[in-house]
Design goal:
The chain is α/β, with parallel strands linked by helices. The chain is 31% helix and 19% strand. The strands form three sheets. The protein has a six-stranded mixed β-sheet with strand order 1-2-3-4-6-9. Strands 5-7-8 form a three-stranded mixed β-sheet. Strands 10-11 form a two-stranded antiparallel sheet.
């Protein structure tokens, strides 16, 4: 199955508010690195463009809508840190299936501003990667993965009144693949602050979940798949103020 890069759309809702829509695969995943070098460069250029645009936001309020199964942990951390460094009041809102690296970005909200749709399913899990080489190379990869798991569990813990061990346990369920949480379960575990009650929420196409080694979604929790909807546009300037959109 060919995976397509995700999309980040940044636009002005008003003079004081910027909205960022994040959908699809985050960053440039490892399994694409040797398939299409030209495509890799193009994808990275667009992603860097997005990060630079986020850093340049000067609005007082930023809302980040997230509908993503995850992607590259490093790229998610870059987005997380770019949002955390903003002086704005940042709100993150999770929709559909929000998993893995996408949940890292969701933690970038200003205290008390992590929101989730009542129809959303939420997944945190241990990191995973591809590796090749001799024993030393594999041991090095294992060491890096342990440090990454520790870093991510501490990041979750830093956003709520809990310790990292709690999130280490959640990430370790199902042999390290995690467990799909309902919005209520995500709230109870301190991963979000508020549940938005909505009548209907569109979900991502789940056909790529097997590639991510995600646990099976219980039938009573499954959402109907729909195609991606967000678009990517170019940064423009209008009437003396920045209109942020990314291509």
């Amino acid at each position: 199955m060919k995976l397509e890069p995700g999309k980040i759309n940044i636009h002005n809702e008003s003079a004081e508010e910027v909205v960022i829509d994040i959908e699809g695969i985050i960053g440039y995943s490892e399994w694409w690195q040797f398939d299409d070098q030209e495509g890799k460069i193009s994808t990275w250029d667009k992603f860097k463009h997005a990060i630079d645009a986020i850093k340049g936001i000067s609005a007082a309020k930023v809302t980040v809508n997230i509908r993503s199964l995850g992607g590259n942990t490093n790229d998610a951390l870059l987005i997380h840190d770019a949002l955390k460094m903003l002086k704005a009041n940042v709100t993150t809102v999770c929709f559909g299936y929000t998993a893995s690296a996408a949940t890292v970005i969701a933690q970038a909200a200003t205290k008390g501003n992590r929101k989730i749709s009542s129809n959303c399913l939420y997944l945190i899990h241990q990191c995973w990667t591809y590796a090749m080489g001799n024993i030393a190379a594999f041991e090095e990869s294992i060491g890096m993965m342990k440090k990454t798991n520790e870093l991510i569990s501490e990041l979750y813990a830093s956003t709520c009144e809990s310790d990292a061990e709690k999130f280490t346990e959640l990430m370790g369920r199902n042999n390290g693949n995690g467990e799909w949480l309902t919005a209520k379960e995500a709230l109870e575990n301190g991963l979000v602050d508020t549940i938005l009650q909505v009548s209907d929420t569109a979900a991502l196409d789940t056909s790529s979940m097997q590639m991510f080694h995600y646990p099976e979604i219980p039938k009573d929790k499954a959402l109907a798949p729909v195609p991606l909807t967000f678009n990517i546009r170019v940064i423009e300037y209008s009437k003396g103020r920045r209109v942020l959109s990314v291509s």
